[in-house]
């Protein structure tokens, strides 16, 4: 009887040496777990000309070893690889061409420079776990590179174990923090880029991610308009763009998102009329749009016919700070500078012109005399009143 080995778990042992031959000889194995061992060295130092990467491998866990250096090019031939864990090693190079990856863990390595643009080719991306944690990446970002969409997340995961049934993923969506476990992970897709200090414009290409259920870009510093391409996110259930510096109007095409349950654009600089209250947009309330001073609509109890003109809105928005309000610091500085300039101007005029100087001192003297006699008169009146009483 022929036995086919599909899962090989050698985790948490004292295995050592070079891990490359183990991987390249794992023909027929689908899941290979070599984490928690003492494998060391560079994976590029082995001659692999006589080997081919096993096409059967869909999951590899090499975390918590002593591997370092560059990632080997032959990993790029792993066309069916869906999960790859490389955390707690010393890798320094980029990772490309793994188009089938759905979960990747690159935490606690020594990756530097910018996040590799080739990660935008991960067409089946579901989660990118702790991709920035304990590395030396620059600020996380969303960027377009040769029409390639870059999606970088930082989604926490409590368990990274053998099967999807054992996996627990914590994900922020629908204005809450939820844990997902089991086979639902095979069908759930989402991106959480909240609280990452992201800047720049939101890419139109994000609208091409028609299969995602959740998109969270809140609490960043994004600017520009909300892409009209978001109307193509036909499966989206949660879209959170709150706490940014977005401007312009909200596209009426968003009413075509019939699956949308949670929608928030609060605390931005949006203007114009909110989308027509039909389909799912009937369910959204004023809180979903709050702190956008120039939005109008029935839900906001503000008639659009009374709103400021676009030119007025544009002028006011240019004078706003990051939080959508006039910067208090700038206001105080401007006030103090103006105050000092006025005082200096008065001093210079009085110093240069003797006539105005005499007139000024005469005026001050009259004011002092008037105040003094006024106080004396008030005192005498009070004294006489007390005597009469």
UniProtKB/TrEMBL annotation:
The keyword Repeat applies. It comes from the Eukaryota. Pfam families: LRR_1, LRR_8. The chain crosses the membrane at residues 333-352. InterPro entries: Leu-rich_rpt, LRR_dom_sf, RLP_Defense_Trigger. Gene3D superfamilies: Ribonuclease Inhibitor (3.80.10.10). Keywords: Leucine-rich repeat, Membrane, Receptor, Repeat, Transmembrane, Transmembrane helix. Belongs to the RLP family. This is Leucine-rich repeat-containing N-terminal plant-type domain-containing protein. It comes from Gossypium stocksii. The lineage of its organism: Eukaryota, Viridiplantae, Streptophyta, Embryophyta, Tracheophyta.
């Amino acid at each position: 009887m022929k036995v086919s080995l599909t899962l090989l778990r050698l985790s948490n042992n004292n295995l050592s040496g070079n891990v490359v031959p183990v991987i390249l000889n794992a023909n027929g194995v689908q899941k290979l777990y070599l984490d928690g061992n003492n494998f060391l060295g560079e994976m590029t130092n082995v001659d692999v000309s006589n080997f081919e990467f096993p096409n059967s491998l869909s999951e590899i866990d090499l975390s918590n070893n002593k591997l370092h250096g560059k990632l080997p090019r032959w990993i790029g031939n792993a066309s069916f690889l869906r999960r790859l864990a490389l955390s707690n090693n010393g890798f320094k190079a980029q990772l490309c061409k793994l188009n089938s990856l759905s979960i990747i863990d690159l935490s606690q390595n020594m990756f530097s420079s910018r996040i590799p643009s080739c990660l935008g080719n991960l067409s089946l991306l579901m989660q990118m776990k702790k991709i920035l944690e304990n590395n030396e990446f620059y600020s996380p970002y969303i960027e377009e590179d040769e029409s390639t969409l870059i999606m970088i997340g930082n989604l926490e995961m409590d368990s990274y174990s053998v099967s999807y049934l054992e996996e627990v993923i914590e994900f922020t969506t629908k204005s809450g923090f939820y844990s997902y476990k089991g086979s639902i992970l095979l069908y759930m897709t989402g991106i959480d880029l909240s609280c990452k200090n992201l800047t720049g414009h939101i890419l139109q290409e994000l609208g091409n991610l028609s299969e995602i259920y959740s998109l969270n870009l809140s609490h960043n510093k994004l600017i520009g308009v909300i892409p009209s391409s978001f109307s193509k996110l036909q499966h989206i259930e949660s879209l959170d763009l709150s706490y940014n510096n977005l401007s312009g109007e909200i596209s009426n095409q968003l009413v075509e998102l019939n699956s949308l349950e949670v929608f928030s654009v609060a605390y931005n600089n949006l203007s114009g009329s909110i989308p027509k209250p039909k389909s799912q947009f009937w369910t959204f309330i004023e809180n979903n749009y709050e702190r956008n001073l120039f939005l109008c609509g029935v839900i906001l109890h503000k008639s659009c016919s009374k709103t400021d003109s676009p030119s007025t809105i544009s002028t006011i928005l240019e004078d706003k700070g990051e939080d959508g309000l006039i910067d208090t610091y700038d206001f105080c500085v401007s006030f103090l500078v103006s105050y000092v300039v006025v005082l200096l101007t008065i001093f210079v005029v009085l110093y240069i012109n003797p006539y105005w100087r005499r007139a000024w001192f005469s005026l001050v003297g009259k004011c002092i005399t008037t105040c003094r006699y006024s106080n004396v008169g008030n005192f005498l009146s009070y004294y006489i009143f007390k005597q009469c009483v």
